[in-house]
Amino acid sequence: MTAVVQRDIPRRNVNPLVYADWVLIAASILLSVIGLVMVYSSTQHRLAFQGEDPNYFLVRQASFLVLGLGLMALMIYIDYRVLRDVSPVVYAATIGVLFLVLTPLGTTTRGSQARFELGILQFQPSELTKIVLILGVASFCYQYRGDLDAWRLAQALGLAAVPSGLILLQPDLGTALVIAFTLMGMLLVAGARPRHLGVIVLFAVTLLVGMVSVGALEEYQVDRLTSFVDQSSDLQASRYNLEQSKIAIGSGGVLGKGLFEGTQTSLSFVPEQHTDFIFTAVGEELGFVGAGVVLALFGVVVWRIWRLAQLARDPFGTLAAVGVLVMIAFQVFQNVGMSMGIMPITGIPLPFLSYGGSSMLASLAGVGLVVNIGMRRYT
Amino acid sequence: MNENSRLRILVVGVIVIALFSALFARLWYLQVISGDQYAAAAEGNRVRTVAREAPRGRILDRRGRILVDNRTANVVAVSRSLVGEEREHVVRELSELLRLPVAEIEDRLEDFRYADFRPIPVATEVDEATLVAIRERQDDLPGVEAIQSAVRVYPYGHLAAHVLGYVGEINDQELEDRKDEGYELGNTIGKVGVERAYETDLRGVPGVEFYEVDRAGGVVRELGEREAEQGDDVQLGVDLDAQLAAEDALLDFITIAREGGRPATGGAVVALDATSGAVVAMASYPTFEPAGFVHGIRTEVWEQLNDPKSNLPLNNRAIQGLYPPGSTFKPVTAVAGLSTGVITPESTILDQGSIEIGGRRFRNAGGKSYGYVALPRALTVSSDVYFYSAAKAIDDLSAAQEEAIQDVALQFGFDQPTGIELPFEQDGRVPDRQWKRTVNHANPTAFPNADWFTGDTVNIGIGQGDLLVTPLQMVTSYAALANGGAVYRPHIGARVIDRFGAVVREVEAQAISEVTPIIEHPEWRQYMMSGLQGTVSNREGTAFNAFAGYSGPPVAAKTGTSQTAGREDTSLFVGTFPANAPKYVIAAVVEEGGAGSDIAAPIVRRVIESLVRTEADSSLPPIGTLIAPPPAETTSSTAPALPEDLVPDGLVPEPIPVPERKLDDEEPATE
User: Reading across the β-sheet that carries B219-226, which strands appear in turn?
Assistant: First the structure.
């Protein structure tokens, strides 16, 4: 049994913003701005064709970005230890909100009851649940300082199970998967025994297979999950979508067709292109060079978070940073992998780039939290 | 932070690096390695091509006058996929816009003739304003197409209908036959006549339009097009005036035959250029309106055209009608007799009106006796006894020569298609011993005798028995006699002209056979021609009365009145002129029309007179003019009035009315 021994980092009496990771912030904002352009590119033709304002999605996404930057600033400004201490309260409140979204107060979209309609804005609580859960799990685990026995592990799982279960009920399989992987990453770093984690993975896989076989998942969800296995058949709609997605990215070639010149994009061959399939617009219009830059920027974000996870002053900071890291890395891999046909199709947005306020807020809040942890390593 | 945690964070980092590497690898594969392939797929997604048929080439007469032209028709078509309320709505709206009863549109939509996958034309002659009105309301009229298409127009109505033929939608068989020529379902193709024979020239090159479409297949914009190239024009050897004279005369004398109590169920006239085989006129009665096939023929018209009571107006009797040639066949017997030596040009036979052969008495028509007749006079008066005797003498020869009549007939081109470009030509039949055995073997009930009798040869000698010929074969054989022995393949087309007026190709005269006896003995031909001249010029001649008052170049001719069991006589006549240097040969056949001298002869006379007149008429564009300037007044003599009396006998369908639907027609008259 190993005890986590706190490094003795000398405190410095300076403005912590001096130590803020501006590279991380810049990479995140750059990705968000690329996202803005791509959302515009993938929606303007269709909107113009329908006689609507081609800037509609652009303007909304820009407001989300401003809102997100505000939230990020707030997450940087409030000392993360305060966040740590209030996290149980926020956690309970979030669970309440997740209950509420399942009541008639929530709105059903495409079979998922996952949103609140707030005037012209929609709010999807499951996205922010990811951040709340990271805070909650981190504050639960850090007190054991790297010693998670079976009982403590079970408690941590139970903590995560309630919101995850509620999200699965919506059903929002994608977010539940993100939470599951984030949790696994955090538990690994928090000191869970490898064999315990093995058992959990085995259990989760059995549960998923069981759900598919007893029909607990909707047919379209099964289709989407399995279509990447047999990609040669184009009979089913999701296979068609996958094929169109691959054609879009592949046809971009090395240099791309040029911004706003993507035919797969402008002619709506790729479904949900401004949300889950935004990467196809990047691939088609900006080519291997542009898509590579986007992936590299994600690499920078993940690398900076990874670095700060190690520099953190306390295990809470390390765990929270690892949580954000896994959350973003898994979403990028899952989303981009899905667009390129190496991962199943699940409704997981690409952080920073996909259209959608809740996802934007969650990603920027996560980055803000990590920056917060990083810059207060000396205070 | 302890070492264990550090290690575990490292593990997370390594996993993340692995995942990102996988993404980069996949991205490389898709965009760099397979980029071209996916780019092609994206292009295929985006671009749809729509082929547009080219306007067909025109068909011209030998003086460059347009017999078949194109015009633009505004067509409103409705998709078959419309159902339920939407269809009700569309039909109601169209009924108002097109001023057609709802029931009529519904009938059209239910019509079985139209292919399943194509929009059904519900209105085919729509005025411009209505077309625009429908296009403007496209959103409200799903499945409705308002298009302009080039369709055939026939300035002379049903003139030369059988020669020109008609076009229609390509069928499965034609599609299969022409699968390498870029035809698609729904294309137009020549079905019969010149339209079919010269399909490749007339068709042109279809244009292609490239459209950008979205995922739903909706057209986003037009990317460009390759213009259709109009098909080449086909100039015929047919002369408009001769054709008109042939059809007029045929109708007039069929009417006369009917007034005389004969059924006269149909007939044909063919005029050839004896020196080349070019068809100058080809008429067949009853006939039809090719304009009725534009936009697809109406079911009731199609049924009427195929009703046996209508006497098969779609058949081109000139190439499909089979008739015993009767006395018009006698020159063949004469050549056979001369070449075997059973007769000489000047040897005589005593014609006492009949002759007994093999215990059977064969009589002259009408029982007349002509005394001593030699070959020329035998042809002039059409002595059957002379040719019975000659045929019997041939039949009595050795096995090598006993079928000399048949052999000569084959040299003249009988018992085989002439090879004219028009489809569905019949072979005819020249019976011989082998044939008789074969048909008896195949069908003993219909043909009880396998043995050949002398009587069979004797019957063939005067063009009877089982002998059958087409009018085109008759005229082709006489052309060979007239020109000194060359059998030319008859041809309708003279040349193909491209849309810039340059000649693409000439249809050359082609000799397919030779009648060797008359090439080797030109004097025989002289004797025969003088006898044939007597037919019209000699008081004894069988067509002397029919040519009473004729003042044109000398004509050499032969009448024929052939018998078919259970039917009235077939009236036949073949004439060639000028007799001293034959230029044209004209044959006429009227089935169940009576004596050749009464009906067929005056028809040929009218065609001859027309040809003589028009050859001398300097106001006409000369023969060989590629494109004649359009006549100044289309309604005057240059556009001949069509014989209106074709319609009442029920054999010729009424022309499909071309309704003029002008919007302001419907306005109440304000005085």
Answer: B47-52, B207-213, B219-226
Which residues of chain A make contact with B12, given a CB cutoff of 8 A?
Answer: 185, 188-189, 306, 322, 325-326
Mean of pLDDT values over B170-198: 88
Among A240, A241, A267, A282, the strongest candidate for a mutation testing the B interface, having the largest count of B CBs within 10 A, is A267
pLDDT per residue as tens digits for the range B305-356: 888 888 999 999 999 999 999 999 999 999 999 999 999 999 999 999 999 9
Q: Is A274 or A112 the better-scoring residue by pLDDT?
A: A274
Query: Which token pair is A9?
Result: 């980092």
Averaged pLDDT, B625-643: 53
Q: Closest Cα to residue A331, out of A371, A365, A302, A290? A: A302
B48 to chain A nearest CA, in Å?
A: 13
**Concatenated DSSP letters of B127-140:** -HHHHHHHHHTGGG
- Whether cis (ω within 30° of 0) applies to the bond prior to A351 is no
Measured from the Cβ of residue B447, the count of other Cβ atoms closer than 10 Å reads 16
Read off the tokens for B592.
Answer: 């169940």
pLDDT at B112: 62
Least confident interval from A163-172, B61-70, B588-597: A163-172
Question: CA dist B389 to B153, B452, B528, Å?
Answer: 55, 17, 17
Task: Supply the pLDDT for residue B522.
Answer: 95
User: Does position A49 have pLDDT exceeding 80, yes or no?
Assistant: no
Query: Other CB atoms closer than 10 Å to residue A158's CB: what's the count?
Result: 9
Q: Considering only CA atoms, which of B206, B74, B82 is closest in space to residue B141?
A: B82
State the Cα–Cα distance between residues B254 and B643, nearest whole angstrom.
13
* A105-134 mean pLDDT: 78
Distance of alpha carbon A278 from alpha carbon A19, whole angstroms: 33
For A184, the closest chain B residue by CA position comes to B12
Q: Which residue has the tokens 């300037």?
A: B629
Rounded CA separation B222/A76 (Å)? 53
Q: Do A191 and B4 touch (CB under 8 A)?
A: yes
First vs last Cα of chain A: how many Å apart? Answer: 29
Q: pLDDT band at residue A138, thresholds of 50, 70 and 90?
A: very high
Tokens found for residue B194: 């010149």
Q: Is the confidence at residue A307, as pLDDT, over 90?
A: yes
**Phi and psi at residue A234, in whole multiples of 5°?**
-115, 25
Average pLDDT value for chain B? 87
Cross-chain Cβ contact A295/B20 below 8 Å: yes
pTM: 0.67
User: Which B residues in the span 39-68 are in contact with A, Cβ-Cβ below 8 Å?
Assistant: 39, 41-43, 45-46
> How many whole angstroms separate alpha carbon B226 and alpha carbon A195?
70
At residue B62, what are phi and psi to the nearest 5 degrees?
-75, -10
C-alpha–C-alpha distance, residues B380 and B245, integer Å:
26
The β-bridge partners of B168 are: B189
Q: What is the predicted pLDDT for the residue at B313?
A: 93
**Chain B residues with beta carbon closer than 8 angstroms to that of A232:** none
Contact between B212 and A263 using a beta-carbon 8 Å cutoff? yes
Cβ-contact A167, A129 below 8 angstroms = yes
pLDDT in tens, B6-36: 888 999 999 999 999 999 999 999 999 998 8
**What pLDDT score does A207 carry?**
80
Closest CA to B527 of B304, B648, B317, B378: B378
Amino acid at B548: A
Say if B25 is an interface residue toward chain A (CB within 8 Å): no
Q: How many CB atoms lie within 10 A of CB B26?
A: 19
B584-591 and B47-52 strand pairing: unpaired
